[in-house]
Amino acid sequence: MLKSTTTLFIAIVTFFIIVLFSSCEKDDIISIEEQQVEQQSKPEVVQDSTYTDAELLKVLEEELDYIELEKQGKIVEASGMEIVKENPKKVYVHYMPWFQSKDFDGYWGQHWTMANQNPDIKDANGNAQIASYYYPLIGPYSSSDPDLHEYHFLMMKLSGVDGVIFDWYGSKDLYDYGLIKQATETFIYTLEDLGMNFSIMYEDRVAQQAKEQSLSATVIEAAQEDFLYINQKYFSSPEYMQYNGKNMLFIFGPQYLNTEAEWNQVFDVLPTTNRPDFLTLWGASNYVGANASGEFLWVDQDHLLAHEHYYNTYQASNKITVGSSYPGFKSFYTEGGWSDGINDWTINLNNGNTFIETLNYNHHELSDFLQIITWNDFGEGTMIEPTQEFGFTYLEYLQEYTGVPHTTQDLQVALDLYHMRKDFKNNEEAQAIIDRAYKYIKQLDMQRADKVLKAIDRFY
Questions:
Q1: In this predicted model, what pLDDT tens digit does every residue of 95-124 receive, in sequence order?
Q2: Cβ contact 382:328 at 8 Å
Q3: What structural domains and CATH numbers belong to the chain?
Q4: Which residues fall within 8 angstroms of residue 417, CB to CB, at 6 or more apart?
Q5: Bridge partners (DSSP) listed for residue 408
Q6: Kindly report the CA angle at 369 between 303 and 296, in degrees rounded to 5?
Q7: Which of 59, 298, 348, 425 is deepest in the core (most CB within 10 A)?
């Protein structure tokens, strides 16, 4: 409900005063830029004055009417979010669906804690102690949170990202793999609603582990069961990623199934009409033989030398070549107690220049499409998700690369939407209006979405 009857009364009185003295209205409205300067110069919280009370009350009245019309079936919103890109190259982000938070799940998952971090401990700034050198702009979160799905995917769409490649650990309830599978599936509704593609990157070591834990009779059988699950659960989505009309399936490796004969058996369980293009880690397609359609590059301590070697050595033998881009690499595994010296090499972020140079390396015809490593691997420090350290910097660079007509201000509106979801999580009416703001962002009516969110903030 609205904040109070008194507040509403004052707002209405203000509305009539503004109508009577409309000539003074322009002086009361400051630009976003002026507001930001004002906020930076004053330590106290200043109410946003981009829009007048009269404007925002009118927005609320209209949106409540629209909600009633939606309930009556008189307004039907289309799915999808159409983004115009000047750069035709497809861009996908590697995504980790493996986080749990105490607020949403009731406990902190191991990817925020590793072996020795405790997010219940806060620093002087109120930040939780997490297993990363970097801190999410929205704080540590749960991968199963639908508010997070909206936020992440809207940010991606506004940056020109075409889809996500989920890091996926099989269909078995082993270690935290079952949680990762469940979280992956919570994303699909929002992906489909925004018209965003997704794919699966399989790790065949999980098949070996399933066999060791007696969850499958053999490693091959475990992989077959996982492939059948992928075929049934993910390939059926209208937004599953395709290239040249075929589904795309990635493998981080292979690491345990290393012969063409073994992979022949795995693929034999799939219908021949639904057999995907299968892409291995760079330099590993020989382990798969004729089952491989190509390879993808990954972040390597040799940095651009690895890029050069990949294209010079493997491109001619690949039907499909996938380039990579990343902001840098700084693993927390040793400090977090998960390893002893493994992955202790670093690639300096270099004030964003590392991301720029790896993006530019793919701005030609060498790669068929691009995989960004990663959206949110905080443990390895390869995330381009907005953080306290870098804000929207990487997404701004990506907007420039993809050639979308969207701005930092648009990204801020998507961030504001997420914060509103949390601030008014127990207010059903406010959430219904926030739903309308989400729909406006889908329609790329960012100004209207901004007005709706500011109206809620001021009067609820």
A1: 999 999 999 999 999 999 999 999 999 999
A2: yes
A3: 5-79+426-459 (no CATH), 91-409 (3.20.20.80)
A4: 150, 151, 154, 434, 437, 438, 441, 449, 453
A5: none
A6: 50
A7: 59
Residue with tokens 């190509």: 294
State how far the Cα of 115 lies from the Cα of 336, in Å rounded to an integer: 6
Token pair listed for 174: 């082993």
Identify any residues that bridge with 329 across adjacent strands, giving them in sequence order: 347
CA atoms of 189 and 237, how far apart (whole Å): 10
- pLDDT of 314 reads 86
pTM: 0.89
| Site of tokens 């504001």 | 416
Structure tokens at 146: 């639908």
Q: Please give the structure tokens belonging to residue 411.
A: 């990204």
Neighbours of 381 (CB within 10 A): 21
Q: Which long-range contacts (CB under 8 A, 24 or more apart) does 360-366 make?
A: 361/304, 361/307, 361/323, 361/325, 362/89, 362/323, 362/324, 362/325, 363/87, 363/89, 363/401, 366/311, 366/315, 366/321, 366/323
Weakest-pLDDT range from 42-51, 152-161, 253-262: 42-51
Q: Which residues pair with 122 in a beta bridge?
A: 128
